[in-house]
UniProtKB/TrEMBL annotation:
Protein name: VWFA domain-containing protein
Keywords: Membrane, Transmembrane, Transmembrane helix
Membrane-spanning ranges: 47-67
Family annotation (Pfam families): Tad
InterPro entries: Tad_N, VWF_A, vWFA_dom_sf
Domain VWFA: 173-410
Keyword Transmembrane helix: yes
Length: 578
C-alpha cells in the first residue's frame, strides 16, 4: 500500500510542521508580551518625574492662589485708603451751606481720580447732620477676577470697605507733662524740647478754629510746683509760700485726682519744702528740690498758642526726676474734681471764661463725640532717689531768728565758757586758780561766725520756721551751722549732725508710676509717651504707660520735634470712628 501512495497523499506532513512552528511563534510572542508587561510594571524609571509633575501643578496652584490673594488685599487696601481720605475731607468741609449732594460728590470725586469710580455710587454714601457736626459714612462692595483660583473653580473674590468720619467739633483736653530736670540742660535737650513743644502748641491751636481745645502744661523735675493760685486750693500740711509742691503717698497714685479743699473731708497733703540737699554754700540754694521759680509752675487750661508759647519758652532745667509726680498732676488736671480750682482761677482772671467749666466730664463708654482726654508724657531719664524733709524738721521750734535786715541767728545753750577761778582767799600763783567750765545761752551769727548774747536785731528779731531755714540754707550748710553753734564756732573733725531729710528709692517711684498709668488708662485718658535719649529701664516704663506701644516714641536730638509733630497731627485729625 505504501508503495502506491501518491504525492498528493504525502503532502500534509509539511503543513503540520509549519503549523507547529507558527503556534510556537505565537507562544513566544505572548510570553514576550507578558514579560514586557511584567517588566513595565516593575520598572521604576521615570516615577519621580510623574510625582514632580503633580507637585509642580500643586505648587503652581498654591502660589497662584497667593498671587490672587495679594492682588485682592492690595485692591482692598487701596479702596479703604481712598474711602478714609474722601470721607475725612467730606466731613470737614468748612462751607456750612454745602448740601448732602455736595458732600457725596467730594467722595465720588476722590474715587474717580483714584481710578476706582466704578466701585461706588451716591447710594453707597450716607450724610447725617447734628449739633455735633457732620457725619459721613460710606461703603464699597465689589469683586476682583482671579487668575489662578479659577483652576479650582473660584472665578472671583469679593471685597468690601467701610468707614465713618465725624466732623471734629468735640472738646479736647491735653496735658503736656514735660521733664525739666537738670539733665535736660545737657546736649541742647531743653532747647530742643522748647522748639518741639512750641510746634506742638502751634499745630493744635491752628487746627482749632472753634476754641474747643484746652491745653495745660506740667513741668516736673524732682517735684512739681503748682504755683500759689493752684497750690492754695488744697489742704496743705505745714504750709509755706516759698513754693507749692505737694507730697503724695502710695494711695495717691491709685487714683487720678487730687482732692481740692472745696471737697467735704478733703485730704491734707504734706507740702514739700523747697530745699537743696547737695550743695554746701554759705547762703542761698543752687539746686532746689521743689523749684520755686514761676517759670516752672503749672500752666492750667489755656486756649491760645500765645499763652502756651510764653510758658514753653520760659522753661528751665533744674533738679531730679519724678515722672510719677509729673503724671499725677497731669491726670489731676483732666479729672472733673479739679473743676472748682478752674472756677477759682477764672474768677482771678487766670483762666479764660470760656474754660471755667473745665475739666469736663469723662465721656460715656463708646461715646465718640465726648471730650477727649490726652496726656503727652516726656522724659529724658529715669526715676532717681526721692528726697523729703523729715517730720521732725517740718514743724516746731527752730531756735533760729532773723533780723529786719535779714541777718540770721541760731540759738544754742551749749556755748562753753572756760575761766579760771581763785579758790583761795588770795591767789598769787597759777596753781592757786582752778579751771572751771560753764555753759550759757548764746546766738550764733553764721554770716560773721561770731556769738552774741542776743539775736541779731534784738527784740525786733522774729522766729524762723523750718521752711524759712531750708529756703535760705542748703541742708549741708544747715548742718554745718548747727555743729558750729554747739561747738563754739568750731567744727570738730569727728562731728556729725542728724540728716534732716529722708529718701525713698527710685524703684518705689517706678511702682507708683505703673499704678497711676493703669488708673489713667482705665479712666479713658489717652497717653502718649516720649523717651528722649533715655535709659532702657525708662523706655520699658514709658512703653507700658502709653495707651499702646504705637503711642510711645523713642527719640534722640531734634527727633523730639518729629515725635511731638506726629502726636499733634494724630490728636487734631478728624476721627475715623469705624
Amino acid at each position: 500500500m505504501l508503495g502506491n501512495v501518491t504525492r498528493r497523499e504525502a503532502a500534509p506532513v509539511e503543513p503540520v510542521r509549519q503549523q507547529g512552528r507558527a503556534r510556537l511563534s505565537r507562544y513566544k510572542l505572548l510570553a514576550t508580551m507578558r514579560a514586557a508587561r511584567r517588566a513595565y510594571w516593575r520598572d521604576e524609571d521615570g516615577a519621580l518625574f510623574i510625582f514632580g509633575l503633580f507637585a509642580f501643578v500643586i505648587i503652581l496652584m498654591v502660589a497662584g492662589m497667593g498671587v490672587d490673594v495679594i492682588r485682592h488685599e492690595t485692591l482692598r487696601t487701596q479702596l479703604q485708603g481712598t474711602l478714609d481720605r474722601s470721607i475725612l475731607v467730606a466731613a470737614n468741609i468748612q462751607t456750612q451751606a454745602a448740601t448732602d449732594d455736595d458732600v457725596k460728590n467730594i467722595v465720588l470725586d476722590y474715587f474717580d481720580k483714584a481710578g476706582f469710580g466704578d466701585y461706588i455710587s451716591k447710594d453707597d454714601i450716607d450724610v447725617t447732620r447734628g449739633m455735633a457736626g457732620r457725619r459721613v459714612s460710606a461703603t464699597v462692595d465689589g469683586s476682583i477676577n482671579t487668575f489662578f483660583m479659577r483652576l479650582a473653580g473660584v472665578d472671583d473674590i469679593g471685597l468690601s470697605a467701610a468707614g465713618t468720619a465725624e466732623q471734629s467739633v468735640g472738646k479736647m483736653e491735653i496735658a503736656l507733662v514735660l521733664d525739666v530736670s537738670g539733665s535736660m540742660d545737657q546736649n541742647h535737650r531743653i532747647a530742643n524740647l522748647r522748639d518741639a513743644a512750641d510746634d506742638f502748641a502751634k499745630t493744635i491751636f491752628s487746627a482749632d478754629d472753634r476754641g474747643q481745645i484746652a491745653l495745660s502744661i506740667v513741668p516736673y523735675s524732682g517735684q512739681v510746683n503748682a504755683g500759689p493760685s493752684i497750690g492754695k486750693m488744697f489742704n496743705r500740711g505745714d504750709p509755706n509760700d516759698y513754693s507749692y509742691c505737694l507730697q503724695f503717698d502710695s494711695n495717691d497714685f491709685k487714683t487720678i485726682s487730687i482732692q481740692p479743699n472745696t471737697m467735704p473731708g478733703a485730704k491734707t497733703y504734706p507740702q514739700a519744702f523747697t530745699f537743696d540737699a547737695w550743695n554746701d554754700r554759705s547762703e542761698g540754694l543752687e539746686l532746689e528740690y521743689c523749684d520755686s521759680a514761676a517759670a516752672n509752675e503749672i500752666l492750667p487750661f489755656v486756649n491760645s498758642y500765645e499763652d502756651a508759647r510764653s510758658k514753653i519758652r520760659g522753661l528751665r532745667a533744674l533738679g531730679g526726676t519724678s515722672i510719677n509726680i509729673g503724671l499725677k498732676w497731669g491726670t489731676a488736671l483732666l479729672d472733673p474734681s479739679f473743676r472748682p480750682i478752674t472756677a477759682s482761677l477764672e474768677a482771678k482772671g487766670k483762666v479764660s471764661s470760656t474754660l471755667k467749666e473745665y475739666p469736663l466730664d469723662f465721656p460715656a463708654e463708646n461715646d465718640s463725640a465726648g471730650t477727649q482726654k490726652i496726656i503727652v508724657l516726656m522724659t529724658d531719664g529715669e526715676h532717681d532717689t526721692h528726697y523729703f524733709i523729715k517730720d521732725k524738721y517740718r514743724r516746731g521750734n527752730t531756735d533760729a531768728f532773723v533780723s529786719p535786715e535779714g541777718v540770721t541767728s541760731f540759738k544754742t545753750d551749749n556755748y562753753k565758757i572756760t575761766e579760771k577761778v581763785c579758790t583761795k582767799s588770795r591767789c598769787r600763783k597759777e596753781s592757786d586758780y582752778e579751771t572751771r567750765t560753764r555753759y550759757e545761752t548764746r546766738y550764733y551769727i553764721p554770716s560773721t561766725g561770731k556769738f552774741q548774747t542776743t539775736p541779731a536785731g534784738g527784740n525786733n528779731a522774729t522766729p524762723m520756721e523750718w521752711a524759712d531755714i531750708f529756703a535760705r540754707y542748703t541742708t549741708p550748710r544747715h548742718e554745718d551751722i548747727r555743729i558750729r553753734a554747739d561747738n563754739n564756732g568750731e567744727k570738730p573733725r569727728s562731728s556729725s549732725y542728724a540728716k534732716v531729710y529722708d529718701t525713698s528709692a527710685a524703684s518705689t517711684k517706678d511702682r507708683y508710676l505703673e499704678d497711676l498709668c493703669t488708673r489713667a488708662k482705665d479712666a479713658g485718658i489717652i497717653i502718649y509717651s516720649i523717651g528722649f535719649e533715655t535709659t532702657r529701664n525708662a523706655k520699658t516704663l514709658l512703653k507700658s504707660c502709653a495707651t499702646t506701644y504705637s503711642h510711645y516714641y523713642d527719640v534722640e536730638g531734634i527727633e523730639i520735634s518729629e515725635a511731638f509733630s506726629a502726636i499733634a497731627a494724630e490728636v487734631t485729625e478728624l476721627r475715623l470712628t469705624q
